[in-house]
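Open question from group meeting: does this chain pack into something compact, or does most of it stay loose? Before anyone orders reagents, we agreed to write out a predicted structure and look at it together. Recording both the input and the output here so the notebook holds the full record.
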Amino acid sequence: MKVKSGYKLVKPLFQELEIPEEWEFTKLQSIVDILDSQRIPIKESERAKRSGKFPYYGASGIIDYIDDYIFDEKLLCLAEDGENLVSRVLPIAFTLEDKTWGNNHAHVLRVKDSTDHDFIEFTLNHMLLLKYVAFTAQPKLNQKDMSSILIILPKKPEQEKISSILSSVDELISSIENSIDYTKKLKKGLMQKLLNRGIDHKKFRKVKSLFGKYEELPEEWDFRSFGDFSKIRRGASPRPIQDPKYFGNGRGWIRISDVSRSFKYLEKTKDYLSESGESESVAVNNGDVIMSIAATVGRPIILNMKACIHDGFILFSELSDEIHNEFLYYLLKYLESRFLNMGQQGSQSNINSDLVSKTKFKKPSLTEQRKIALILSKVDEKISDLQSKKDYLEKLKKGLMQKLLTGQIRVNA
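Structure tokens returned:
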């Protein structure tokens, strides 16, 4: 293998890597002080008696606030145990600052002055550490194996430059996350106002609602049931569902995971049915509105594809001309928590189609429905645009980390 000029070939843990000539491999224990002996775990029942202002950290970040602290400096935590060591849904390395308390589910490290703290945090979050993790009752990174983690280390000035670049991307991501949170709060407030009081209404009347309570609605609106405007049809499943003959290249087979991955419209599914599978299920088409009624209760979505639903979903079929499908989607989204609370608790929560059919809602005119849906759609477009920017930056950061932390791209320190 020909090594390019200015680089060298190294082989840590049976893996050949090409790194800059002046970079070195070093064990984590040589660049940090390990403060694990200072950690003190506190049971949840005891923490409840000691509520306070100081962050109490676990394996993935803050889990509580208590009345005292152990540490009062900038430190690095690295998860010691838990499924997140494998799934990496959350960062496994994170910074403690100021007055904090740490339990025994995260190693506590002080990065030595010869090394840049942020560089080590970025490196640990980027590395695949499975070869250091023991798989017992749950994944565990014990202190001995943690200490032996091999770190690729440039000179400190280059570490600091790399950290600065990646931190700048993190700041952009954080800014977009704040904008997403703000826009979602704005949408929640708009839904509350628009779906209860409409647009520019002056006169209101009271109607009897659930449990004998009274609600206000604009004088021009009706108070009606979903069953008045739609036939609520429950889905169906081929049996046995594991039989491969039911799957092929036909209509999509909608699972709750497909809905959870989507935003407002469902455009693809993981699995697809054969003609045989379709004949045993319930077909749904472009523009149809469906809602989950089992396990994850009350999650609506609009179809932008041909598919089929199982008995964990209902279809609002034969929708009346008096109901706009996008308005229906936003109305169901607004009522999601109510449907969830209606769920019958067993091995998993569920509601029946008759209950949904009898549920009443405040019905504006079709014209006003369209206006309400348009306003909320514009907000959703903003959220979707921000999410796309965040996804792009996260992908950019991942690529930058791969190249910067291995020296494939050099920076002037």
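Observations to bring back to the group:
The chain has a mean pLDDT of 93.
The CA atoms of residues 322 and 366 lie 6 Å apart.
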